[in-house]
Amino acid sequence: MKRVTGIGGIFFKAQDPKALAAWYQKHLGIDVQPWGGASFRWNGPDNPQGAGSTVWSPFAADTAYFAPSTAPFMVNYRVADLHALLAALRAEGVQVQDKVDESEYGKFGWVIDPEGNKVELWEPPEGQ
């Protein structure tokens, strides 16, 4: 079974996410969108038409989205089959969060690594 197939996103806490995003836009040319982050498009063997993306997004310093982790960041990994991977990880004794979100943006699940970092696993929608 394929597990991680790439990085889906980099999320990090910022004291002032809007100001920090504006700095990255001005100085590094990151195309920050109205929702506050950017999406880098790319292609690869699994998506030769270039339908893949990696998200970059600052979050408010007090966000609870990374909880229970206290780390100032969270990495989102692309996966091929979220439900199968979560089942395999549970069987291997990995701390898997009970919640799974499914929407038009894909399927999302979370695990906690041995150092307490929350890791987001994302199965993109078909064709992405």
UniProtKB/TrEMBL annotation:
InterPro entries listed in its UniProt record: Anthracycline_SecMetBiosynth, Glyas_Bleomycin-R_OHBP_Dase, Glyoxalase_6, VOC_core
UniProt superkingdom: Bacteria
Organism of provenance: Inhella proteolytica
Domain VOC: residue ranges: 6-124
Signal peptide: none
Protein name: VOC family protein
Any one Pfam family match given in the protein's UniProt record, by short name: Glyoxalase_6
